[in-house]
Amino acid sequence: MAIMALSVTPIGTGSPSVGDYVADALRVIERSGLGYRLGAMHTEVEGELEQLLRLVPEIHQACFARGVKRVSTVIKIDDRRDAPSSIEGKVRSVAGRIQRA
Question: What domains lie within the chain, and their CATH numbers?
Answer without folding.
Answer: 2-100 (3.30.70.930)
